[in-house]
Design goal:
Elements (H helix, E strand, L loop, with lengths): L26 E2 L1 H8 L3 H9 L7 E2 L5 E4 H28 L8
Antiparallel strand pairs: 1-3, 2-3
């Protein structure tokens, strides 16, 4: 029986969220959000419409952005959900006696 530790969990690389000296929670524009989350405009808007992505903040009549803290929270939530799915699948394989076949 192999013990699973936190070190064996899959962690996804994440580009750093741009920081601006003196600004606590900067607003990220679409290109920054695309780079940080790894999704394109159409998918971001589809997820926003489904309530699965942070809502944009209107900066002017034609400009929007996202709070960096909201994007970071969304990334953390996705990462935790991914790790939970991985742990659940490993536990199910262990209970079925399949543990160790491809590990």
């Amino acid at each position: 029986m192999k013990k699973t530790t936190n070190e064996s969990l899959i962690h996804f690389p994440q580009p750093p969220i741009p920081s601006v000296p003196g600004i606590v929670d900067p607003i990220l524009r679409l290109k920054d959000v695309e780079r940080v989350v790894g999704l394109k405009r159409s998918r971001i808007y589809a997820l926003m419409g489904a309530g699965e992505f942070p809502q944009a903040v209107h900066l002017s009549a034609r400009a929007i952005g996202w709070r960096a803290s909201a994007i970071q929270e969304w990334i953390n939530t996705r990462r935790l959900a991914s790790e939970a799915r991985w742990i659940k699948s490993r536990a199910a394989r262990y209970l079925r006696g399949e543990e160790g076949e491809d590990a």
